Amino acid sequence: MRIGFSIMKLHCFDRKFFHSSPSLTPIQLPSPRETHLWYVKPSEVKSESLLNQYLDILSPCEKENVLRMRGDELRKSALLARTLVRTTIARCKF
């Protein structure tokens, strides 16, 4: 997708994000005029054990904020959002 003078790339986490995976595949940082947008579909993440593993990734403060959310879907979305941020940053090759 082209926007003005920059390029935007859309990425949906593949099925590996929805199942336990021992390692994360490194990704290249985008060029200065390129934007990558990563997203996850909460409805596709169904494993309770995987969600518990994601809770273990979070800092105590992040975990507290997620668990404080009212409603299961809101908690799940917040957990997946924080996990997406952490795993995406961890995969970047600087």
UniProtKB/TrEMBL annotation:
<dbReference type="InterPro" id="IPR050559">
    <property type="entry name" value="P-Pant_transferase_sf"/>
</dbReference>
<protein>
    <recommendedName>
        <fullName>holo-[acyl-carrier-protein] synthase</fullName>
        <ecNumber>2.7.8.7</ecNumber>
    </recommendedName>
</protein>
<dbReference type="InterPro" id="IPR037143">
    <property type="entry name" value="4-PPantetheinyl_Trfase_dom_sf"/>
</dbReference>
<dbReference type="GO" id="GO:0008897">
    <property type="term" value="F:holo-[acyl-carrier-protein] synthase activity"/>
</dbReference>
